[in-house]
Specification:
By secondary structure, this protein is α/β, with parallel strands linked by helices. It is built from 18 helices and 20 strands. About 1% of the residues have low confidence.
Amino acid sequence: MTRVVIRCDASAAMGGGHLARCMALAHALKERGARIELASRGLPERVRELLVTPLRVPVHALETVPTPAADFEPDGSPPLAHAAWLPVPQQLDAAQTAAVLRAGDRPDWLIVDHYALDARWERIVQPHVGRILVIDDLADRDHVCDALLDQNFFLDAQTRYHARMPAHAERLLGPRFALLREEFAQARGRSAARDGRLRRVFLCFGGFDGMRQTLRALRALEQAGLDGLSADVVVSGDHPDRTEIEQRCRQAGWQVHFDVTRMAGLMVQADLAIGASGVMNWERAAVGVPAIVVSVAENQHVVAVDLAADRACIYLGAATDWRAETLSAHLRALAGTPSLLSALAARAAALTDGLGARRAAACMLPAPISLRTAQTSDCEAIYAWRNAESTRRYSNSTQAIALTEHRRWFERVLREPDVVLLVGEAAGRPVGVLRYDMAGDEATVSVYMVPEEAGRGLGTALLRAGTQWLREHRPTASRVHAEIHCENVASLRAFSNAGYRRVREIWTLEL
């Protein structure tokens, strides 16, 4: 059985978002048969019960022990911005994590989600694990990893990590990889079309609300003076302002919820959300709820700015800067402009569908893809896949293909010795088609997915399977070329992750 170890912490300082997204990925990996373990330091019991216990993930508690400074000499590197989140030196943390990795079968994957750990830590644990996945969104430190996942929205997403990680490492970037619990994808399917009217608000600043934003937002709701407005307010049971929050909600007729474990059901009922940036950006987007956002940590600011620039949210500013009067004004403006609220909802919903954890799990533990040469009996099925609008959109010819024309093409391809047509299958079902046009020791590849399988992260696996097939069946081939439409982002990503490199306008793989 595949063994996966996760290194992640949670606390009032760092919040619970890192652990929440790791547990979402853990759930998706468990569905693919993986055995998951968590290595954590100082994990609050309440957080453990809410996020870890329901998944039955065993926890290795890393001990915090006094360490003589002489044991760990500084290497001259400047301290990391979030070094205070780790109460021991990186070297000690790495040694303790390595001990966990050695306590059992060699792990296939180590997932690390921690702003206070970098390449120095990763080099120490690397010999004890098959591959390392880093979850990051700061791009402020170097990594030694095999894959990096950044689920956040950045206008410069494709270039942020170029100098920070190995060239061969796979990049899983953007909200399509947002690590959310299954409940958000399910709630999205139940979400009714919003008409732009503001009747219900969802208010939450995260599991800890360490910056104590909830009361200020409640005062803004009161000042807005919107008749008939209902609200669901979510806070932790040990929130320091609990008594006043309960009193204000009781007076206004609003509902207050403590230690909620399934928030999607509350979000999907809302016409507008008010809360923190961070992981909740993608939870709200997955169910199509427009949001007014506050950054409660420094790293959330750039994401919120870029989302606002993309018209996917309204950004008030940092937790220390925004005023209740500003939020009240926005609420009144949105209540009087249904078209704006609808536009915000549509743009947010386009960012993610809530299936990012499944995509990431499929990239880490892909279903084995087998390739077989196409047969005469595949003609009709390949016609349907080839003629799908999603396939034709980025083809040299975007026109629909006539069945008679396809049949002539198909018969010719099967007879042509220098053309290889392969059907990729995973778990007994077809997932895509590869065509290699051979010319001496070079080949040109064309690829398209079965429409129902698109967006599941299988493109890279299909291309890698094709590379292996060529090495075994056409050993004289030394180079493969691909022409990719500049707007076909999914194909650009798949070819890059499969090892192809851009040479002018051609993507090339050296065999």
